[in-house]
Design brief:
single chain; six-stranded parallel sheet; three-stranded antiparallel sheet; globular; disordered C terminus
Length: 394
């Protein structure tokens, strides 16, 4: 069978981690598109050479692609030449990890704004990519890794929804299985889980356990027997944040990479595979889904209606700083979360139209860079004022 063409857009760390796992398996024709062609070429050569250590003769073709308004025509031409079966979008104007590099107290204060107000940084490149896909008149399966809980839902309103997302709720599932297995005295492979929840929930739980206002639905089976509600959710998710605490940041993207692979590898499988993913078919938040045979379908547990699952995720979305996504794609942001952005960065965006995302992203990027530079200078000044201790060795 002819291998499918996989195009990964965005040549950052997540792209690298995905390639490191996928390329040695040699299941796809690989393409990588990035605004930094030299960096992408070096990265792809690294992966190719590493694969050859295992005698896998991998081939990865690199293309230049800048996801801006001015480059849509050129990007559409690039897509038309490649004709990818799957596009995996890893592009973002500013990764969520950037603010984690701030001093701990400052990061924690800014993190109270949640991810919602940072939406322009993820939406703008995804919108440009989907416009190029439409212009190229292609119908690939598009997998979005850039804040898919919200980005996919916004793009759905303007008729350009990616097929599905990766990460977020999927990253919470393995630890949830482990926690239930520990309570039940069995192995994690004996536990099957169906979990519904938005990014706020999947971000909060691994760090602090169950939030006070918890918008989620959890069903689970042990050796095929429905055991839902056998164990207190507080105990399950407390175990997730304590016994199964894990590395985050760049290292934590390994979980997102594995989530992406579980989706990408199975999109054209001959049978459906149960996984978890955010933003399927433009829905807000995360769900259990079935992937395979060139499609993605909801895989909700029996008794959980689609509209109830959506309502849970919309409630989580409000906790994440997005008050509503309207019928025309306009986004209204939470006043409380935006106040944090205004106070700390001087950035205020009560509402945003899809076509204005790039402009807001530019403004937000400039204001964050100025803020981070101010914090850095303060830190340098403070360090310079500290007494220097000289240790004499006799």
């Amino acid at each position: 069978m002819q291998r499918k063409k996989l195009l990964i857009v965005g040549g950052g760390n997540l792209c690298l981690q995905i390639l490191q796992i996928l390329v040695p398996r040699n299941q796809f024709e690989f393409y990588v598109a990035s605004r930094n062609l030299e960096q992408a070429t070096r990265m792809c050569n690294l992966v190719r050479l590493a694969a050859l250590q295992q005698d896998v003769p991998a081939r990865i073709e690199c293309r230049e692609m800048d996801l801006t308004e001015e480059s849509i025509d050129r990007n559409a031409q690039t897509l038309s030449r490649i004709k990818p079966d799957i596009i995996l979008n890893c592009a973002s104007l500013q990764s969520w990890r950037v603010i984690t590099r701030l001093p701990k107290t400052i990061f924690e204060a800014l993190d109270e704004a949640q991810l919602g107000p940072w939406l322009p940084m993820h939406l703008a490149p995804a919108y440009a990519l989907m416009r190029a896909v439409v212009q190229a008149r292609l119908k690939p399966l598009v997998v979005n890794a850039a804040f898919p809980d919200a980005v996919n839902a916004v793009l759905y309103k303007v008729g350009m929804a990616p097929t599905v997302g990766v990460g977020n709720i999927a990253n919470l599932v393995p630890a949830t299985r482990c926690a239930i297995a520990q309570l039940a005295g069995c192995e994690p492979l004996q536990v099957r889980v169906k979990l519904i929840g938005q990014h706020f929930f999947s971000h909060f739980v691994p760090r602090r356990g169950l939030p006070e206002e918890a918008n989620f639905s959890l069903s689970y089976w042990i050796d095929g027997q429905d055991c839902t509600d056998y164990y207190d959710p507080g105990d399950i998710f407390s175990s997730v944040s304590q016994q199964f605490r894990r590395l985050g940041g760049v290292d934590g993207q390994y979980l997102t990479a594995m989530s992406a692979i579980s989706v990408v590898e199975n999109l054209f499988a001959s049978t459906e595979v149960d996984v978890h993913a955010p933003g399927p078919d433009g829905l807000p938040g995360g769900y259990p889904v079935k992937v395979g045979m060139g499609r993605v379908l909801l895989g909700l547990p029996y008794g959980v209606r689609r509209e109830v699952a959506i309502q849970l995720n919309e409630a989580g979305q409000r906790q994440d700083g997005i008050q509503a996504i309207h019928a025309d794609g306009t986004v209204t942001f939470g006043a409380q979360q935006m106040q944090v952005m205004d106070k700390m960065l001087g950035f205020c965006m009560p509402e945003m139209k899809v076509q204005d995302a790039a402009g807001f992203a530019l403004e937000l990027g400039h204001k964050y860079q100025a803020f981070a530079e101010h914090i850095r200078r303060q830190g340098d000044k403070h360090a310079a004022q500290q007494p220097t201790l000289i240790r004499h060795v006799g």
